[in-house]
């Protein structure tokens, strides 16, 4: 049985705020739309869920995405542009992540856009038995 992989996309990244309320469409929502367009034809779409997230607390580094799966390292990437080539690079990196049993993404193997902008690499949670 394959572990469930998730690609999170922050939808509040690069928002414009006025009087405590978000105005218009955020950069994160636009990035999610770009990814969603490519996701429909992506060969790993049945292996990865695409999940919008209200905030990933990386507001100083918009736009942000994260890859996670049980038993694997979790990656948080930021400073991502909002365009189709960024969306393609994100899905390419997610495909690479899928192939790695431990989730480790060596710098040299990542798409150029995701060689920088890494905000966190979080170890997998230890397995606990009850």
Descriptive notes:
Helix content is 22%, strand content 24%. The chain has helices at residues 27-39, 84-99, and strands at 5-10, 16-18, 21-23, 48-53, 65-68, 74-77, 118-122. Strand 2 and strand 3 (21-23) form a beta hairpin. The two termini are 22 Å apart.
Q: Could you give a quick summary of the protein structure above?
A:
The chain has two helices and seven strands, in the order βββαβββαβ.
Strand content: 15-25%
Shape: globular
Q: Largest beta sheet: what is the strand line-up?
A: 4-1-5-6-7
For the largest beta-sheet, the strand count, sense and barrel status come to:
5 strands, mixed
Mean pLDDT: 93
Oligomer: single chain
- The span between the termini is 22 Å
Low-confidence stretches: none
Question: Rg, please?
Answer: 15 Å
The SS-based structural class is alpha+beta
Instruction: Tell me the total number of β-strands.
Output: 7
Query: How many H/I helices?
Result: 2
Q: Order of helices and strands, N to C?
A: EEEHEEEHE
Helix content: 10-25%
Features:
130 residues; alpha+beta; five-stranded mixed beta sheet; two-stranded antiparallel ribbon; globular
């Amino acid at each position: 049985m394959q572990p469930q992989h998730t690609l999170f996309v922050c939808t509040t990244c690069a928002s414009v705020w006025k009087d405590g309320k978000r105005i218009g469409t955020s950069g994160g929502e636009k990035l999610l739309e770009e990814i969603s367009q490519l996701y429909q034809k992506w060969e790993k779409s049945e292996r990865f869920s695409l999940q919008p997230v209200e905030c990933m607390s990386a507001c100083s580094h918009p736009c942000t995405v994260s890859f996670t799966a049980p038993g694997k390292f979790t990656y948080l990437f930021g400073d991502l542009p909002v365009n189709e080539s960024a969306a393609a690079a994100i899905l390419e990196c997610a495909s690479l992540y899928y192939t790695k049993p431990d989730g480790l993404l060596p710098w040299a193997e990542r798409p150029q856009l995701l060689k920088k902008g890494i905000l966190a690499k979080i170890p997998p949670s230890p397995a606990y038995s009850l």
